[in-house]
Design goal:
Strand order of the largest sheet: 13-15-14-19-18
Order of helices and strands: HEEEEEEEEEEEEEEEEEEEEEEH
Strand content: over 45%
Largest sheet: 5 strands, mixed, barrel
Structural class: mainly beta
Number of helices: 2
Distance between the termini: 83 Å
Number of strands: 22
Number of domains: 2
């Protein structure tokens, strides 16, 4: 009797072992964090794949592919927008797959509702031109332009067309009615740049300035480093700040002062402005 009871205890254990050995390793579902995504050239973002299954699902790593590698690339879910166009990102694990349709544009139309001009004086100490920072911004977009005017101008933005300099080989090139091209310092943009969902240096283009009864109209047409077209029109007033005086600190930029003009201080001023 005792022997029979011990044997009966082993039967359920054997059944459990056999049942466990029969569990199939498989992926039952695969979903992505987004079904569609929109980019500008140069932007990056990531897709997150959520996988469920039975057994050992580590046997089925997620494999990523793009239908058009010239438009976007993808590595472990990280997407890099490379050129204008459309592509489909596919994630596959086991027998399951999910897709995300990606659209890449090369046009940016900033929405700006406020404007400022910051007088820098003869920032290059070359007695060629005075410099202004022109800032057009809103909660979502900021356009910063370092504009050169004549030495006689110190408190306004003269009417006319300003062109981005593509070559600067001598100080005389930094003449009135020119715009300093964007550049990078320690990974940050300075001189002329756009800051929104994408942040890039402005390297080409122009802005046309007109005014009537104290209201400015600024029509701009620029290209950034990745050849995105940044264009639009700002109409409104331009608040004035004199950055050459020790006592003047723009109320919207309490974290930085322009008494000594450097590319780094320029970036920090406007970066702090938009984070307030």
């Amino acid at each position: 009797m005792k022997q029979k009871m011990k044997l009966s205890l082993f039967i359920p254990l054997i059944a459990l072992v056999l049942l466990a050995s029969c569990v199939k390793n498989e992926i039952t579902s695969l979903t992505l964090s987004n079904a569609t995504k929109s980019f500008n050239i140069g932007q990056t973002d990531s897709l997150i794949a959520t996988v469920t299954g039975s057994g050992d699902i580590s046997k089925f790593p997620v494999m990523w592919t793009t239908s058009n590698s010239s438009v976007v690339s993808v590595t472990n879910g990280k997407i890099i927008a490379k050129s204008k166009g459309n592509a489909t990102i596919t994630a596959k694990s086991g027998e399951k797959e999910a897709t995300c349709v990606v659209a890449v544009s090369n046009e940016i139309y900033p929405v700006t509702t406020l404007g400022e001009i910051h007088y820098l004086g003869d920032a290059f100490k070359a007695k060629v031109s005075n410099a202004f920072f022109v800032i057009l911004y809103s909660k979502s977009d900021t356009l910063v332009l370092q504009i050169n005017t004549s030495l006689s101008v110190s408190n306004s933005l003269p009417v006319g067309k300003y062109q981005v300099l593509t070559v600067i080989s001598r100080v005389e090139d930094i003449a009135p009615f020119t715009i300093m091209p964007g550049n990078k310092l320690n990974g940050k943009n300075y001189n002329s740049w756009y800051y929104g969902s994408i942040q890039q240096s402005i390297v080409e283009g122009n802005i046309n300035v007109s005014t009537s009864n104290g209201i400015y109209t600024l029509e701009y047409d620029f290209f950034d480093f990745y050849r995105n077209k940044i264009y639009g029109t700002y109409q409104g007033t331009l608040r004035y700040f004199d950055e050459t005086t020790a006592t003047t600190t723009p109320p919207s930029a309490t974290k930085s002062v322009f008494k000594t003009i450097t590319p780094e201080s320029a970036f920090n001023l406007f970066d702090s402005k938009m984070r307030e």
